[in-house]
Amino acid sequence: MIKLYISISLVLLILLSGCVGSNPDNGVKIGITLPLTGAMASYGEEIKKGLDLAVEEINANPENKSKIELIYEDACYPKDATTAISKLVEIDEIDFVGGNFCVIAMPPISAVTEPKKISVMQISTASDMILTSGEYVFSPNIASAYSAKAQAKFAKDYWDANTVGIIHYNTDMGKSYGKNFAKEFENLGGKVLVLEETALEQYDFKDVLTKILEKNPDVLQLVHMGPNLGSMLNQLKSMGINKPIITYEEAENPDLFKTAKENAIGMVIAIPGMTESEYMFEFEKKFKDKYNENPAVLARVAYDAIHLEYAAYKNCGDNKDCIHDYLLNVKDYVGASGIYSILSDGTAGKEIVFKQVVDELGTLETIDYVPK
Predict the structure, then answer these.
(1) Reported CATH class of domain 8-143+275-349
(2) How many Å apart are CA 166 and CA 183, to the nearest integer?
């Protein structure tokens, strides 16, 4: 539910609607729930860079009277998310949740935030469950179902594939990618030879890869977290399985490339397309100046999430109904992750581009592909 562009016409529309509430200059508290330790910490670290840069810029602007305070909680699994969101809402009294990453954390988060009309930004791609988590859940990212269908189309068109083997982790996110890829691939005339779920914490994939070896599909769709997927790629190579591989945006992860190294070369990653703008180029320069690296998709989305919520707060103050309506009605937003609008399912409308890993460092090059 987010499609933001701060246009004059939109601001006038909201002003005329009488939506604007009080805007006290006592600061904006934004809660963040990310994996900051453990196996998925690299995702949290990447997102945190985008969040911190956005807040640094907003707070440094003298025109912004209300300064942002980010309150981080190390949370991914439901139990930790339950504790984290209770603290953020009841003790810290946050105005927004500015960044949640783990899909499995959303049910306990939205259970607390929805009754209080606290808007939440989901940073990862939005799985089927995210889309039904509540009317105050938004995402500047795409829907996983949309990406999965685009991946299936690419596999048919680009590789002329007739059969596929699918392996995904067993959360709502993994299932969303797997089932939507499979359905679209079959709709396009293909056949799914292997469809296997694995545990989120799994690193030994020899049993499921043996099925791939036996069935010998034309291509593979692999959906797992960075280090786990890196281990899977290594095991594929050790078993002599050399197939075209397609995966999702979260494979753009340093732990994956550290683990797989040269075994990741050739893998194709489906990434939300980013319509270029001067704003994007400026963001990229600021990010590289601060962190000495190029921003990944998740850092871009996180940066946008903070700017979107702050824009809503500046316009609406503490009027939560106004904030909700503001976010739902923003269009053609010019952000660090592209120029986009929010679709009816609450996710960002972005084209999918396909990038191929070309070296063991994880350098990506865009594939020249036009759907047939």
Answers:
(1) alpha beta
(2) 12
